[in-house]
Amino acid sequence: MVGSKTISAIKQALQNDKSYSDVLLKKGMSGSEVKTLQNNLKAAGYYFGTCTGYFGPYTEQVVKNVQYKFGKNSDGIVGSGTYSLIQDILAGKATPMNSSTAVAASNSSPTNSSFRLSWSQAQNIFTIGTTATVFDIETGKSFNVKRTFGYNHADTETLTAQDTAIMRSVFGGWSWDRRAIIVKVGDTYIAASMAGMPHAGRDDKPSAVKVYNRSGDYGYGDNLDAVKGNNMDGVFDVHFYMSKTHSTNRVDSRHQEMIDVANEYAKKNY
Question: Can you say how many angstroms the Cα of residue 176 is from the centroid of all Cα atoms in its chain?
């Protein structure tokens, strides 16, 4: 018979087994193991993005949230302890130790709600020349922006040096990482995703003229920097549902993952 002592012994044996204790999944990895992790987190009610098999910033944040909620070291890395914890959560054997986390739990699947507007809709609201407020879901910080360029997605600039400082603090420095955001244009809230790397511009040159040495190693081309004096050279990308990159003309799955997150957040908070 398998009683409590036997169960404890089996658990200990598993933890001592090399194939089990060596579980290690972290940001930047991809594959079937990552997809299984995402599916398990979704089944547990903590992950509501698309299960892509890529361990990106959102997956890392969800892991950190789960670790924090259940009293573990919040490093965002899935070692044997976190792996075991997720199995216990799925089995209903884990007890939360801390209060709500940065990304709230949800059992609902992403749907195309009024917050997840398609690019064809969003670009007619967040038009070129329009200002908006960007709200970063994970940190709760917000800053002001203007859409200045872009046709496949919104090429966007911060309005002031203070806005740039807030944006940079959100990413911890310039980064191509994707983050779930809400773009507020007037009274309209739109689920979106941003990357935090200014590119293709020079603050010291006139807008839309041909220049060399554009930011982000973009070299020679049109100067995509219309807002001057904001301590940022060029634009950063804001994507909406089914928007595409300029370079590949394809939908970026990691941006879409973040848009799903933003959509779920908006449905709970607006």
Answer: 11
Instruction: Answer positive or negative: Cα dihedral of 229, 231, 236, 238.
Output: negative
Q: Cα separation of 122 and 239, whole Å?
A: 10
Of the candidates 58, 69, 98, 66, the one whose C-alpha atom is nearest the C-alpha of residue 179 is 58
Residue 140, classed as helix, strand or coil, is: coil
Pairwise CA distance, residues 149 & 171, whole Å: 22
What are 265's two structure tokens? 């957040």
- Enter the tokens of residue 176: 């191509």
Backbone phi, psi, residue 61, to 5°: -65, -40
Six token digits for residue 12: 């200990």
**Residues 6+ away with beta carbon under 8 Å from 199:** 214, 215, 216, 218, 224, 234, 235, 236
pLDDT tens-digit series, residues 16-40: 554 455 678 998 898 899 999 989 9
Q: What pTM, to 2 d.p., does this model score?
A: 0.63
Residue 86 near residue 45 (C-beta atoms within 8 A): no
Which amino acid makes up residue 99? Answer: S
Distance CA 69, CA 81 (A): 14
3-state SS, 222-258, equals ECCCCCCCCCCCCEEEEECECCECCCCCCECHHHHHH
Yes or no: say if 261 and 49 are a contact pair by the CB < 8 Å rule: yes
Please check whether residue 199 is in contact with residue 216, taking contact to mean a CB–CB distance below 8 angstroms. Answer: yes
Residue with tokens 């670009």: 123
Q: Which residues of 144-173 are buried (b: 16+ CB within 10 A; e: fewer)?
A: bbbbbbbebbbbbbbbeeebbebbbebbee
- The predicted-structure confidence for 103-148, as pLDDT tens digits, reads as follows 443 333 334 446 899 999 999 999 999 999 999 998 889 999 999 9
